[in-house]
Amino acid sequence: MTGFGAASLPLIITGKTMAMVNVECRSVNGRFLDLTIRSPEEARGSESAMRELIGKKINRGKVEFRVHIHRDSAQNSTHAIGTLEASDLSQLATRINQQVLTELGALARLAQAAIPDAKPLTTADILRWPGVMIEESIGAQELNDAILQAATQALEALSASRQTEGAALTKMILQRVDAMEQIVHRIEPIIPQASKIYQEKLAEKLTTILAGIDQQGRSISKDEVADRIRQEVVLYGVKIDVAEEISRLSTHFQAVRTALSKGGPVGKRLDFLMQELQRESNTLGSKSVTQETSDASMELKLLVEQIREQVQNLE
């Protein structure tokens, strides 16, 4: 099932520095759970707990979680350079990686020499350059708690999104089940008459066989007569009784409705029921003695297939 969720959680590192923990998650259709977590290096320790958290809520779908940790140090530093006293600037300078800054200056001069028209780096460009600012570390437990809390909120938003799609799929499935039930109700009254017609045709055929004449008018032996009678009796037994298939179809229709009404994870249960409905529809077609029951079998199989395609996406 498809869906999207996101959550952000502020995290105070020091009195003046804040980090924002952002978690985004999205899912697309899939028969099994295919989970991917993308996070920065400092958040890798939380991935195992995230997988456990997600696995309790989601069983199917291709799911991706992204964790971002954004510090506002560059913005604070830019503001500080323009407003703080000299003593404060000296303390602020300790947050700059001098080696990376020196290497960046050398690279900038080389680029300027190679491309004279290139614009020089701005202060903001320099401060945003990876590694220039020494980021204040966040406590492992504090960061883990913040990530899991944001992931929980994002997961709730994702679940709400998936539930909206699930409600639409439930409506579609119930419509198809109603349509299949109407097909069964339509053919039930004609089955006794169809059976009677089949019995009459069989009686005529057996009368001819007992007379020792085959369908081409040729004489046949007693052994051949006995063998032909056995074949026709077996075929009659197979063709004449579809009450069991009709009963099973009705039972499966009710089982689908019950599963959907209970809620919760129903995908695998419905997938099994679709297999059973397909089997009974096939059997009904193989036992068909009229065009009406053959057509009904085909219609049932088409509706079952339509549901099966969607059921594979349900949680």
Report mean pLDDT, rounded to a whole number: 79
Name the overall outline.
elongated
Radius of gyration: 36 Å
Q: How helix-rich are the residues, as a percent range?
A: 55-70%
The fraction of residues assigned to DSSP E strands is 5-15%
Overall strand count: 4
Largest sheet composition: 4 strands, mixed
The number of distinct helices, counting runs of at least 4 residues, comes to 11
How far is the N terminus from the C terminus? 7 Å
| Order of secondary-structure elements | EEEHEHHHHHHHHHH
Spans of at least 5 consecutive residues whose pLDDT stays below 50 are 73-84
Q: Which structural class matches the secondary elements?
A: alpha+beta
Q: How are the strands of the biggest sheet laid out side by side? A: 1-2-4-3
Question: Can you offer a commentary on this structure?
Answer:
The protein has helices at residues 47-55, 73-83, 86-92, 98-114, 123-128, 140-187, 190-210, 222-240, 243-262, 267-286, 291-311, and strands at 3-12, 18-28, 33-38, 61-71. 63% of the residues lie in helices and 12% in strands. It has a domain at 162-311. It is α+β, with helices and mostly antiparallel strands. The model is unreliable at 73-84 (pLDDT under 50). A 4-stranded mixed beta sheet has the order 1-2-4-3. The protein has 11 helices and 4 strands; from the N terminus they run βββαβαααααααααα. α10 (267-286) runs antiparallel to α11 (291-311). It is elongated and about 115 Å long.
